[in-house]
């Protein structure tokens, strides 16, 4: 998926958010370094960075001192105390906090009062092992704050922050614009994954018709990744349509609406590609099973033919062995040195033995010949 061109310029500057309620900032976490899970906390005003506090308590205090500002707090695998501190300061719903703490959530969008809670599944393609690495991102969006809780390496929110800071007109639109930029980054991150999976499928098709015995395992593993990819992308379609349904109610900027619709279009396209990949892998697995069955049938047929030929040879060997055994039996009997054997002193004894051997051998030959043993 080619990168979409960025459109500079935002047409409406929203009014400043209402002042935050006057209450003392939440106390710092005792007995623990407060910034253990903080990636970066920045305070913005009119789309410009004004302060980058080092701790959560400093962020709370700065936001109280500048009620017209917006705080963007980024955390990576935060501690339970940090989440509880954020929940106390920004009045986050306990269920959303519990989800952010536990992770392993499905993509979803929920609204708790004036706070929007979004769960996203980011993905990146790892070239060396040829597999997809999934990350999880939780976003709290309020009137004057954005909190991101990242579980995993993807997505790279530092690039999103740089993009936003380079577009102060975008930041002026407030937390909704930050949410758009995060959604856009997550969706754009799917493009390399789609390309990597397409290359994998092309390679798998070659391996299938080449008869690679390890291809079945690769198809199965990629199919499982496609199931995970579907779970990451398919819910986004409904989530973005839900956001678009609230444009009028929440007074979303017109230009931001267009950008969110563009993200929704790309999500739909990506979801359709993923569905197509899963269907293609199912068909490839069926073709591979058919080719394997044909190969096994050919091997069994070759073994059967070899067994038939071997059986024919055994028949011939057994027939000639029986034919040669008959005169040996007669000769062995008459070779015994018994005194009382009438045939030993019979004038026609020798011709009789020879004729008997010939008759037995001829009879056996005729029998085996009729049975196609010879």
In short:
Helices cover 58% and strands 14% of the residues. The chain is α+β, with helices and mostly antiparallel strands.
Topology:
Layout: E1 38-45, E2 48-51, H1 56-65, E3 70-76, H2 80-90, H3 94-102, E4 108-112, E5 115-126, E6 131-141, E7 145-151, H4 157-165, H5 168-171, H6 175-210, H7 215-245, H8 247-250, H9 254-334, H10 349-370
Parallel strand pairs: 3-7
Antiparallel strand pairs: 1-2, 1-3, 4-5, 5-6, 6-7
List keywords for this structure.
374 residues; alpha+beta; rod-shaped; disordered N terminus
Let me know the largest β-sheet.
7 strands, mixed
What structural class should be given to the helix and strand makeup?
Answer: alpha+beta
If you average the pLDDT, what whole number results?
Answer: 82
| Oligomeric status | single chain
Shape: rod-shaped
Helix content: 55-70%
Number of strands: 7
Number of helices: 10
H/E element order: EEHEHHEEEEHHHHHHH
Ends distance: 72 Å
Which radius of gyration do the C-alpha atoms yield? 41 Å
Point out poorly predicted stretches: 1-36
Strand content: 5-15%
The side-by-side strand order for the widest beta sheet comes to 2-1-3-7-6-5-4
């Amino acid at each position: 998926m080619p990168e979409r061109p960025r459109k500079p310029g935002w047409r409406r500057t929203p009014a400043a958010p209402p002042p935050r309620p006057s209450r003392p900032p939440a106390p710092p976490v005792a007995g623990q370094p407060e910034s253990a899970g903080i990636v970066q906390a920045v305070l913005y005003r009119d789309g410009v960075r004004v302060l980058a506090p080092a701790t959560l308590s400093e962020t709370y205090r700065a936001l109280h001192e500048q009620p017209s500002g917006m705080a963007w707090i980024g955390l990576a695998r935060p501690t339970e105390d940090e989440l509880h501190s954020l929940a106390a300061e920004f009045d986050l719903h306990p269920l959303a906090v519990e989800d952010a703490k536990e992770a392993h959530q499905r993509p979803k969008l929920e609204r708790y009062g004036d706070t929007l809670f979004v769960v996203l599944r980011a993905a990146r393609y790892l070239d060396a092992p040829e597999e997809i690495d999934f990350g999880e991102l939780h976003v709290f969006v309020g009137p004057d704050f954005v909190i991101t809780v990242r579980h995993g390496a993807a997505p790279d929110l530092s690039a999103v922050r740089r993009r936003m800071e380079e577009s102060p007109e975008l930041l002026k639109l407030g937390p909704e614009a930050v949410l758009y930029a995060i959604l856009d980054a997550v969706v754009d991150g799917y493009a390399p994954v789609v390309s990597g999976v397409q290359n994998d499928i092309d390679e798998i098709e070659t391996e299938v018709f080449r008869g690679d015995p390890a291809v079945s395992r690769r198809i199965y593993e990629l199919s499982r990744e496609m199931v995970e990819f579907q779970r990451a992308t398919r819910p986004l379609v409904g989530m973005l349509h839900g956001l678009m349904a609230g444009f009028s109610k929440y007074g979303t900027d017109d230009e931001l609406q267009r950008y969110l619709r563009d993200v929704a279009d790309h999500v739909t396209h990506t979801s359709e590609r993923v569905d197509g990949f899963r269907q293609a892998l199912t068909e490839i697995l069926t073709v591979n099973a058919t080719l394997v069955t044909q190969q096994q049938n050919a091997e069994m047929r070759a073994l059967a033919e070899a067994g038939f030929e071997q059986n024919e040879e055994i028949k011939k060997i057994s027939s000639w062995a029986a034919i040669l055994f008959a005169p040996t039996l007669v000769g062995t009997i008459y070779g015994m040195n018994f005194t009382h054997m009438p045939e030993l002193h019979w004038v026609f004894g020798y011709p009789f033995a020879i004729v008997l051997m010939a008759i037995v051998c001829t009879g056996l030959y005729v029998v085996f010949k009729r049975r196609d043993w010879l």
